[in-house]
Amino acid sequence: MDPVPALDEPLKKVLGPATAKVMAEHxxxxxxxxxxxxxxxxxxxxxxxxxxxxxxxxxxVTVVAQVADARLHTFASSRAPRGKGQRxxxxxxxxxxxxxxxxxxxxxxxxxxxxxxxxxxxxxGKVSVFNRRLQxxxxxxxxxxxxxxxxxxxxxxxxxxxxxxxxKLESWKIGKAxxxxxxxxxxxxxxLPESLREGRGLVTLPEAxxxxxxxxxxxxxxxxxxxxxxxxxxxxxxxxxxxRHADAQLPAVxxxxxxxxxxxxxxxxxxxTLTEGQRKVSEEIFADLATDxxxxxxxxxxxxxxxxxxxxxxxLAVVDAGGQAAMLAPTEVLAxxxxxxxxxxxxxxxxxxxxxxxDDATKVVLLTGSMGAAARRQALLDLATGEAGVVIxxxxxxxxxxxxxxxxxxxxxxxxxxxxxxxxxxRGKGKQPPHLLVMTATPxxxxxxxxxxxxxxxxxxxxxPAGRSPIASHVVPAADKPHFLARAWERVRxxxxxxxxxxxxxxxxxxxxxxxxxxxxxxxDEAEKRPPLAVLDTAEQLARGPLAGLRVxxxxxxxxxxxxxAVMRRFAAGEVDVLVATTVIEVGxxxxxxxxxxxxxxxxxxxxxxHQLRGRVGRGSAPGLCLLVTEMPEASPARQRxxxxxxxxxxxxxxxxxxxxxxxxxxxxxxxxxTRSSLxxxxxxxxxxxxxxxxxxATRIVAADPDLERLPALxxxxxxxxxxxxxxxxxxx
Length: 733
Hints:
Helix content: 25-40%
Number of helices: 26
Shape: globular
Strand content: 15-25%
Structural class: alpha/beta
Distance between the termini: 47 Å
């Protein structure tokens, strides 16, 4: 008998080069172990047929059904002019609905003989519509006959695994390949420590793999899933726990504010009182800053909850203690905006070394890639000498020639725009590792925070500062009700007449060169969707049409930085009535006088992005209005998503909706191949309990054995998670 292939045996040795090539190219499966971890999407019972009534359009599906009837038609065509063309129409049923299968030409002979009424089979193909009826054209099929030794009862009750498949490789072919490699499941090294596995009543890994691919009962499937979920949650949490543990070993300079320093002076001049939430989070941050190992904290807060204020107070505490603080922003527009608002908030405290500067003052410096040479030289000098206590910048802060006198705190704004490399590059600029505060206005459900940002402690700001106005949101169905769109432009005019301003957001700029550079779209996409609306076209149409006579300007990412800044300054000063922009205004832009936002083609944006954009209005005392314009039909998923955004201002609720509508892998920033997510079984929203328990266990195990010397199988599983392909996996969040 041949030896059982090991788990890292290449598939081409076991299955042959042709099948292995398709598995590698289309499913990202390369080894026996990869294939064993390609789990069934669902199971069909032979005795109970699938729901044909619920088939999704334009997707590859596998159905188990029974042939109701089969008819062979002849017809004339250019290829068969004498009426010799043949078309076989087979109707299949599952009790919930009927579906037509169509075969043409020479392809009719085999199915005509095999697909007789009463026959049961698995059919796989792409669902399309012909004459208003769903059909599969030339589906692949596999007759369900049952093995000779099976009794009728066991055959009817058997569970058929349906695998994630492709047009090139049907589910049952994957199933057959799995039967070939299944014996090697016995060799799977178990990453869970035995005491943990037994304590939680989980089956062994080899048993779980056998039960997931060849279940005899539904209980088998449940046992296998429970075990495999634990593996995924636990190995990921061990990776994060080790990162936290390593960070905790690093030395850092404790930074405590002086009782009569710049922070106290800043607090004294604040024209408002901090919210309870801001005070609480600030205390958590100050406690971290006072320790002798680096703070690693995630500050998440609703749009407009005052995160910048909390971050600024932390930065001033570090300046008090003789250090420097750097804030890293994802775009120049945002860096300039932060620089402007921080210098305004600090007043004479930001005028260190200048006439009129306060005694405790420091310098607040801006550093971006597009600055002139002289301004840049001066900024670099201020950083190197320590003259500048606070610096705000873009990626330019990370460049090699940037030197700090004593970097004590790094604040990263909008973490999801930065990879860990950038975060670490800036942290590497301190003589000792600086403290780290990461901010995001994209609310993250607790489980995702534990998973994506598992190496950070989390603080949440969920109160809005006093004086913030509520934002009313409405969906404007432009295709069904064009008069609603006309009314939207009237509302914009009304707001401008009251002395307020408006944003109009579009998905695209509109100066793209011919479509060559645009991503190639499938013919289905082209047919279904017109190109997204563009800033330049929309601005021109509005200025000539419904908003004629108003001061309309544009803002987008391909403008020169000075031009962008000039437009933002004019808008902030009230010299522009309507700003037509791309999502460059998504984060951090703060114009309290802007009260209305119209988002064109709102269905082209994600839920969290719409929530972010909406947060740009209602920042003053006048109420905000957000209008989500779409041409999507009422029953479509896109419309349901927009209705959800319009129905709540709770970012955490929306982030759950967002997450439920996306694949887990997208959320966790999987390896960029796009074909494999490390989470095959774990659902971040539904499995909150497993993730929380896995985190506790992982923390305990890493504290006792940081190098996992006593757990070699766990170390192997960890190396596989953090292999070359995915070493950035944990930080792409």
